[in-house]
Amino acid sequence: MLRKLIMTAVWLQAVLLSFAQANDVDNTVKIAVGSWPPFISKELEGYGSVAQTIKHAFALEGYEVTFTFYPWARAYENAKTGEYDATAVWMFDEERTQHFYFSEPVSQEQFVFFHHKDLDFDWAQLEDLKGYMLGGGLGYSYGAQLDELIETGQVTINRVNTPSQNLLRLYHKRIDIFPEERHIGLYYLKQQPADVQSQITYHPTPFLSNNGYVMFSKQSPRGKELLAIFNQGLLKWRQQKKE
């Protein structure tokens, strides 16, 4: 009888320990993000549409999300080292796969060239940008082809922190062209004074149609696991929206 009681006690202890460990599972996902309104921003309700998509996808799998906003380059580095589980949102770049797993797409963007109305600008291929001064964002990628032209010095770019700065530089003709996602460029343009808005336009032909992704850090112990969890939740979320 004594032995039976001891065995029962051991079994109960194991069950309780297993239960405690299960409840100790960290269901909070830490994501480092950059500001990219109207898609994602600290100033937007619910942090914007992309942040809400990420949040809902994880919620369907029983996870909560905390977003921490940084300049883009810092968000990338903080996730790369595993300080954060993931970073959002980024376009696909083969080089980034060394450090990150890419999720299923969470957004769709079209990049165009903004310019001053006084500039008679047209283009057919990206090599046509040679001779122009581009304004860009710190840590931004503009797609493999344009990135290569920039990195090899065939196209000149001067980078600053925010789209607003680039729009003002366009207005004052300190740069010639500003490549930016159309919705984002227009979002920031609407915040400028009327005379600035009246002098800036964009070329209607997108130079890049792109998907945005959540990148899960390979240095995070849960990176690959969270990738699968997120993709599963994202599929459920999209199915729910169709119903």
Automatic annotation (TrEMBL):
SUPFAM superfamilies: Periplasmic binding protein-like II
Keyword Cytoplasm: no
Keyword Signal belongs to the record: yes
Keywords, in A-Z order: Signal
Recorded superkingdom: Bacteria
Pfam families named among the record's database cross-references: SBP_bac_3 (PF00497)
Domain Solute-binding protein family 3/N-terminal: 34-239
Signal peptide: 1-22
Family indicated by similarity: Belongs to the bacterial solute-binding protein 3 family.
Protein name: ABC transporter substrate-binding protein
